[in-house]
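We append the chain.
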Amino acid sequence: MHFLNPLYLLGLALASIPILIHLLIIRKNKTIEFSSLRFLKELQKTQIRRLKLKQLLLLILRTLIIVFLILSFSRPVVRSNFPIFRNYSNISTVIILDNSISMDVSDEFGNRLRQGKGFVTSLLDNLREGDQVALIYTTGITSNGAFTSDFQFIKDELARTNVSLVTSSYENSLRLAQKILSESKNFSKEVFLISDFQKSALRNFTDSVRLFDSQTSLNLVQVGGKSRFQIENVSIDSVVPLTRIFEQNKFVEFEVYLSNSSNKNLDNLVLSLFMNGERSAQRLFNLQAKGHQKVVIGGNVKSKGIVRCLFEIESDALEYDNKRWFGFIVPDKITVGLVSDNESGYIYRFLKSLEGENIQSKLILPNQVGVSNLSDVSVLIIENPNLDNVSYQKIREYLKTGKGLLLFPPISGNDLPLKNFFASIGIGLNFESKSFGANNSPTFNFIDLEHPLFFNVFAPTSDRSIVIPDPPKISNLLTTSSGLALIQTSAGQFLTEFNFEGSKILYCSVAPDLKWGNFVLTSLFPVLIYRSIFYLNSFNEYNFSLVCGEPLSLTFPKGITPTNLFRIEDPLGNTTEIQAVQLPSGNLLELRNLLVIGTYGLKNGDDVPIGTISVNVDAKESLLDLAEKEQIISYFRKHLQKDVKVNFIDDLKSFHNADFREYAGTELWKLFLILAIISAILEMIVARTSRREMEN
C-alpha cells in the first residue's frame, strides 16, 4: 500500500485522544451515594460488566473514526483490482509509438502505423480528469516530450504523425520515458510501447542501468503479431564503388547489394542508376527467397563537380528502402605544376600530351619555386628535388592547403635533398641507394590493388601474384622503409605514400631517367603519373555515407578552405553556411539533424566542392521478421527492475474494449471514508444506549 498524501499520516497521533480521555475518566474518584444498603445489593454484577464493555466499544469506535478519517485524507493506493470497489487512481501514462519505416508496411489489418495510432486513440479515450499523458516516438522525433492533461493536444499531434526515416531505438525512448515519469504527480505509472518489434530492432542496450520502479508497468503492444499476410519486399542495403578515381566522360562502376525479406523467389527485377537526375543504366536481376544478391551496374559520368547517384528498384511493400544514394566529386580542370628544368624530359612531354579539357600543366623552374604562386596549382610534381630551404618552405606551405605532391629522387642519386625536404615537413627518413646489373634487376612482388591508384588496374593471378605486362628493368633504386608501401620490389619499396597535415605525398624510388632503368618506357610510367594526378587532387576520401539522423564529425586540413567557413547543399538545393571549430589538428565540422534522404554537397569558403555526405535509411529497418512473444518479453525484462510489471498485448481489437486502468492501482480513500461514517453511526448508537442505561 502507498499513500498519495503521506503527510496526513501524522494525524494518526490524534487517535490517542479518546484513549487519553478514557484513562483520565477511570482515574477520577467519583462518589456515589446510596440511599440504602438494599439498593446496593440490587445492583447486579452483569449490568456493571455490560456497562464496561460498552465503554470499551465506544473507545474503539471513536479511535477508528479518527484513524479512518486520517487514512482517507492520506489517499491510500494498492496495486490490485477490486471487482466491486472500482475506484482507480489517476494515472501518468507515457505512450511510445514506433513510427520507423518498418511500420509503414500494410497487412490484412491495414497499415501498421495506422493500427498503432488507432490503439493510442483508444488509450486517450480512456483517460479522465487528473490523468497525465506524454507521447514520444522510438525514432526520437517528438514535439512534446512532457506530461500534459490536454488530451486533445495529443490527439492532434497523433494525427500529424508520419513515418520517420530515423532509425528506431527502444533504449533511447525508454530512457526518455523514465525521465518523463520522474515528473509524475500520480502513483500509478504506465508505459505503453507500441511497435512491430522486428528481430533486428532488439539490439543490446549501451547502458546497463535498469529501468523504472515498482510503481511502473511496461505494456508491450505488438502491431502485426497476429498477421499471417505474406509481405513481399526487396531492399537496397548498400552501394560500394568499384571505381576509385572519378573523371568526366569516364565509366564508373558500382556493386549494389540487395536483399529479399520475403518467403518467395522474385525474378526479373529491375535496378536503375541515375546520375544527377538522368538515367544512366539498368540491370535485371533475380532474388531467392530470404536471399541476397550483388549486382554490378555503371555508367558514364557526364558532369563535373558533385555527382549524386541514385540507385532505385521497383515499388513493393516498403517504398523507403527501394532507393539508395551515393555521391562523389569529379574535379574541375586540374593544373599540374612540374618542378623541373628539363623541357625534354619524359614527365614534361607526357603532361603536355594530357593537356585538354581536364588537365593543364605548368612548368616551374627549380630556382623559381620560392617566388612562384602555387595557389593555382592542384598537384605538384618534383622531378629533380635539388632545392634550397626557401623553396622547401614554399612547398611546405603549399601542402598545408590540402593539396598533393608526387616526388622523385634526384637523378644524381644523392639522398641529401630528399632528407632535407622531408625534414622540413617533420618527417625523418633514411634512404638506401641500390644499384643492379642487367641480369639481377629486382622483381615486383606486391601492389596494393585496393588502393585507389591501382584499383581495377592490375589483375592478380590465381596465386595472388601480380602480373605487370612489361615490368620495368631497374638499374638504381633510392628506397626507404618508412611510409605506406603501395608497390614493393624484391629490393625495397618502389612507391610509397606519406601524409602531411591531411595532404598526400607520393614518393617513387626510381628517377624518371634512363640511367635508372627503363621505367619511363614501360606502361607502368604513364599509369602511375596519370592516376597520381587524379588521386592527389581528389577529395573523394571525404565522401561519407551515414544513416538518417546520425551525427557526423569531420576534421579537414586547415588549408582546405581560406577560412573556417563551410557550405552544405542539401538534396533539396538549400545551402547552409557552417562555422568549423579551429583545432590544432584542423577544422572540426560537427553536423547534426541530417534528416533529408539524399546526397549533401560539402564546399569550402571558395565554393569549391570538397566532399559529399549520402544519407540513407537504415538497412536493418528492411528486415521485416518479427520477434515472438517470449523473445520480446525476455529482451525487455533483462533491462528492467525486477519488480516492474510487464504486460504483453498483441490482440489490439480486444484491448480496445477493455479499461486499461485495470493495470493501474486502486485508491481506497472512499472506502476508509465510508468506514469512518459507519464507525460514527455505530458510536452514536452505542453511546445513546449506554446513556439510557446509566439514566435507568
